[in-house]
Amino acid sequence: MNKELLKSISLLYVEDEDDIREFTAKTLKSLVKNIVLAVDGEDGLKKMKENPCINIILTDINMPKMNGLEMCEEIRKYNKDIPIVITSAHRDSAFFKQAIEVGVTAYALKPIDLYQLINSLVKAIEPIFLRQKLEKVNGVLEHRIEEAVKEIKSILDAQDNIVFVATADRIMDVNKKFLHFFNVETLEDFINKNKNIYDYFKNEIGFFNIDLVKNNSTWIKYLANIAEVDRIVKMTNEDGINRIFTINIDEYNHKSEHYVISLTDITEIKEKSNLLEYQANHDSLTGLHNRKKFYEIFGKEVRRDARYNNYLSLLMFDIDNFKSFNDDFGHNIGDEVLRIISKIILESIREHDIAVRWGGEEFIILTPETNIKGAKIVAEKIRSTIESFKNDKIKRQITVSCGITGFSNSDSQEDIIERADIALYKAKKLGKNNIVLFEKS
Question: The domain containing residue 335 runs over which residues?
Answer without folding.
Answer: 282-438
